[in-house]
Amino acid sequence: MEEQQILLPSKIDNTDDCSCEEWSDSSSCSSYYSDSDSSIPEWESSISSTGELLFIDCDPVVSHTNVHTEKENLNFSKENSARHSTRSKFLKLLRRRDSKRRSKRYVKSQDASTNPDTNKVKFQDHEEGEIREVILNIDQRNRKLGRRATLVESILGLTVSTLSDGCRIMVAGFIPDSEAAKQKNIKIGDWLKCVNDIELTYQNLNSVLEQVSSENEVVLRLQRVAGIEVTKNPPINELSNQSNFVQQLVNSKADEINIISSILCEHSVGVLYINTESISETGPEFEGILYCYPRPFEKNLLCSSRGVFITLNHLLHEITQCKPQVTSFLWNNRLSHVAYTSFGNKLLLFMLPDNRASIKEILLENKEITRMLEFMYQTIDGCFESDLFKEQLDHFFSRFFTRLLCSGLWPKAEQSVELFNITSKAQQQGPQQFEDVLSVAHSLILPDEAQMQIDSALTELESSDYREWNEEPLDCQRLFTFLGSALYHSGYLLASHLVHGDLIDIHIFCRQQGLFHLSRTEPVRTLVLWREVFPLSCNRNIENQSNSTVVPEGRRYLLVVGSGKDILAALMEAGGCTEPAEDNMGPDAFYVEEAQATLAHLQDIGISNLADHWIANNPGLQVAIPEIPIKRKTDFLGTISFSKTSYNTKETASPIQKKQEVTSILKRRTPDQSTLSSASSFYSLADDNSEIHSEDSLSQGGYSERSESDEPVLGRRATREKRNYMESDEESDIEDYRDGSYSNSSYDITELRQSLLAETADIKPQYLTAGNENVLFHYVQLDTIEGILLCPPENQYNSKTLENVLSNFRKCALQIHGVFQNTLRFKQMLSQDMAKSVINKSLIAIKEYGVLFECTATDEPSRKYGKLTYWVIGRLFYVPHPRELYICYQDTIPQNIIEIAFKLGISD
Amino acid sequence: MSAHVVCITSGGGLPIFTRKKGNAETLPFSMIGSLNGVHMFAKAQRLELLNSLMEDHCAVWKEFHDSILLIGISSGCTIQVLNKLLESVFNAMILVVGIDAIKAQRNIERLKRELRLCYPIVDRLLDSLDCGDTTNKHSSDLIMMVETILCTENHLIRIVLESYTECVDSVYSCILIHGKIAVATESWWDLHPDEIKLLSLLATIENTTNSKDIPVFLPHKSPNVAYRFVAVMLIPNVQICCLCGPTPLLEEIEHSAAQCFKSTLELLESALRCHPRNFPHSLDAEFGILGILLISIKYGKYMISRHPTRTSAKPSGNGFHRLDILRTFYYQAVMGALVPDNWENISTSSNKREQSKKADKKEERNVKKSNKMECTVNTETYWCSEYHKCHAIIVDDNVLCVLYNSTIPTYSMRFITPRVLKTLATDKQLCW
């Protein structure tokens, strides 16, 4: 109540220049604005005239490892949670207040982060200044600094920060007693230009240091930055906060696009949309071209040779009665492909070089781009024919093609998307792709408890039920209905409440627009995106589906909000049961804030941390790291992979988590690990564990019960598990369930977060493959109907063998996927078409396809090594809807892929 | 279920011949002209048009020596196979008229007339496409490889063949049973696989006379100088072929053939009984095996059988269907994966074994972006369909593809296939 009263005046201020009537109209909505401090949202100025919005705000100084951010987050939410101890049914209320408070705190934390250390100095830099070279011995002992230490700290003994452009590295301090601290020539505030003649930027810092980490000596080149000015609040240029990538996303500078365009003309990339009907001999030279990129027309390969493709499209159809899909040709001795898509008389051509996209890949890319454009602009016609979108399309395609030519892939952070040396990069063979070219969302399945929390938070957002919150009766119609929403964490789908087709649409959109890449690599503080979209479920192709259910008139909008690594995408509808939509409608601050609050709530209860933890440790289904076996030691592989996993677990765990981890390691002790550790250490661990538990039980009310009941079981269970792993699995599942319901019955945010993490600890590593050792290297479960893909999170191990194995896996899986399409196509074929079809009859019923690879070391010490043999197997399931499973495992004992699919199914 | 091959002079765009297979209509001239025109226009734009892919069809353009353009359009098969077909068709053209006549093109009408000889060969080559129609009686043809027959008598026949080869003053000779090579001399196997294949086809087509004496240009060995290819029919369906110089005369060759094989006629007759099965009755495959395909990468030869088990001896129309499945399996899953693409270039050189291994590695390395540490090869692959299972393994230079009943457990295929391969490849009598 009080809030409302405070709120209203500020609203009036804000809408001063509005007429009174208008004000009263909008007041019912705008009075919900809970942000009392700043009623104008920071993104408001970025809204374009068409109502579209893309606002990205990043933290200017970036912490180097995610461990740091995690820690900050944890502290932050700890203090936060200490204030609230309300029961779950008040969570919602809490959340509202919370969001308001945060906005204040955000301002504070923003200050803190722009100036992380008040006694830290910032320097204005000038180009002149003496350059010095310093030879630094790398002391291998310094590696002991602890796992928290960043690479710079552990290798060079320096702490660094960035200069005001956010890119160049500045020496910010020394690690006490380090080699660097003793060097007189290194001064705080120096610009660290090069290490061993490799130029340093913030982006390549870690990768460069990794390269030199094994050497004993490095040469640092430093430059004294003149004109020192010590400031507490340095004037940070708006743009300087943004990395290249963010700038690319947000800005579309015409001159930059022109430069890119002219560079791209030298490569076999391009997109062309032509009207094939209106072409006549007498017309002007480039008649019928509706859209073309890169430009100018004269230099565009597709454009100048469009006659070939128009003729082929027509001719081959006449000869064979089916439409051409792709044509390959050599240009400057480089193999390239052009994919066709026909829309009536109009033809869309899409060209990529073979070393970046094979025939299979270009077909998938083409499909995905077309679908994304339809999602964004309703029809391909509407998208290319209107001049309104030309700039947007140019911007998109320039980014798309440069990405494809430079780095090929989104996901890895190191692959910075840069324009220089594009020509040399474009010559290289692109990496094999499988998971990333399919139009499916890689989903991460969190424990049930966390899943439930996410679901309930999303449902609450979607329900838009504000009665409890607002005691005044509502007398206005809502602006929007939520059609659904989805939550992502660094590109992994955590939960989706969308119709399958819409999920695929939104996923494709976010991926191709680089939002996932953004959330993975950039320190995003706020991301808000708003635009009108045309989801598949809402009359996109009316003429195609005449008998489908009629969807009410209305317009749909996509709202994406992001913070940190999390992204929440929501599909909203105006019209229908809500207020009819206006043209060029911009985002409504209230709904944006609602979504942001939901996201903040989810981060608060620890979903974000949990997902991070989950991605890093993969506690559920285990995959092994392939190694070429050394002869005589056949069981080497299994033990290595296991110890690596547990090591990694410890590394990223927060203090509280760590204690839990001790338990978890004990619990998940499997036969082969118990052989690793001696009996004595086993007991000492058990002792520690009991102490920790009593500690825990003091601090956490509801939790003690559980640990007490657990304690006596521990020894017995451990031995029992040692005897029979599978048997105990079943029983403990029931216990887990009971535990879950305990923690569920009464909790506040702290408890909730604890229990979420605790549940992680309880998850036992599961093996999909039969046999004692884990021989599974990779799995992909593909569901193209639901648009979901399940596979282990991206690994962090730097193993060449693994890279090799995965590359083979992807190549092979794509081939298998192609073969399965025949089977699916035949299943869907009508019986009268079957006789007419010229499909190869030997290919119509294939449901499983396997390939055995044999990998040997070819270097001279190869006698020491044996062979690594592994299977890549794909399997197609039809019922209830088509699903494909691909696995890659070491060839030891025969595995049954149906059994694996079943195990994977129940582990979901 | 259709395939077209069009041959056009690349300079003038004059059509030289078109051949087709299946129930499609002949391509009208306007379409042939457009197909050529597209390629020509692309060339002017500095593009070399290679191929186009449709849902079930593919089209391939291939230009040879800047003088001949071959265009192939087919349903059901892959671009890789169609490419090989066009290469083979061009080789067949060389076989008949020699490379010089094709390059020079002094008199197109004469060239057209001379090339008519190769139509039957081209038609047979078209049969090796896996269009997926089961009515094809030549489902056993594999592209760029020669079919063989494994008889228990082979080792005995070989001795006789060697003495015959000396008689006709040659080193190249072989014995064909139903058009499949039973035995051949070492030098015969040293020829390029496609040459061996084309010669076998040449011997079997249009068998109106007992003996043939045709001048041939070997596309790889001697594209400019013609050899004499002499095929003598000893008894029906058994032919003795040899390559020789201007001497001896055909009568002399016929005479020495009769002399040398006089005493071995019985052997040949018993070898003939091997025919539809293609490998000896004494070897019985395990229950559940519906067909086998044995391939030697080194020599580019294969043996395919659709009645491997004696119990299923009842004649059934399914047999051809089985061959089709095996062939599609080979084209789609084995060729290019288990068998590296460039093996035929290697097989002509002397130190074959070493070379082919090296080439394997080289190929793999290219794929793996010059990963120096490790090299990966495929050694096994399988398909499970609703009705059948296919399994292939490669051991040294031999590939064995086996078609199983769908009731066979997948894991047991891995035990049966190597056993079958071992039996077939190590049997000295069969001369594999």
UniProtKB/TrEMBL annotation, chain A:
Composition bias, Basic residues: 98-107
This protein's record includes keyword Cytoplasm: yes
Family, as annotated: Belongs to the inturned family.
Lineage per the UniProt record: Eukaryota, Metazoa, Ecdysozoa, Arthropoda, Hexapoda
Biased composition regions of type Acidic residues, renumbered to the chain: 727-736
GO CC term, one of those recorded: cilium
UniProt subcellular location: Cell surface; Cytoplasm, Cytoskeleton, Cilium basal body
Keyword tags: Cilium biogenesis/degradation, Cytoplasm, Developmental protein
Coiled-coil portions: none
Protein name, per record: Protein inturned
Residue stretches of biased makeup (Polar residues): 648-657
Pfam families xref list: Intu_longin_1, Intu_longin_2, Intu_longin_3
Primary residence: other
Region ranges (Disordered): 98-120, 648-678, 690-740
GO biological process, one term: nervous system development
Annotated PDZ domain residues: 133-224
Organism: Ignelater luminosus (Cucubano)
From TrEMBL, chain B:
Gene Ontology biological process terms in this record: non-motile cilium assembly; vesicle-mediated transport
Family: Belongs to the fuzzy family.
GO CC entries: cytoskeleton
Span of domain FUZ/MON1/HPS1 first Longin: 4-125
Organism of this sequence: Ignelater luminosus
Region Disordered, residue ranges: 348-369
Compositional bias annotation for Basic and acidic residues: 351-367
Subcellular location as annotated: Cytoplasm, Cytoskeleton
InterPro entries noted in UniProt: FUZ/MON1/HPS1_longin_1 (IPR043972), FUZ/MON1/HPS1_longin_2 (IPR043971), FUZ/MON1/HPS1_longin_3 (IPR043970), Fuzzy (IPR026069)
Occurrences of domain FUZ/MON1/HPS1 third Longin (ranges): 288-426
Pfam families linked to this entry: Fuz_longin_1, Fuz_longin_2, Fuz_longin_3
Keyword match Transcription: no
Annotated FUZ/MON1/HPS1 second Longin domain residues: 169-260
UniProt keyword list: Cytoplasm, Cytoskeleton
Entry superkingdom: Eukaryota
Protein name: Protein fuzzy homolog
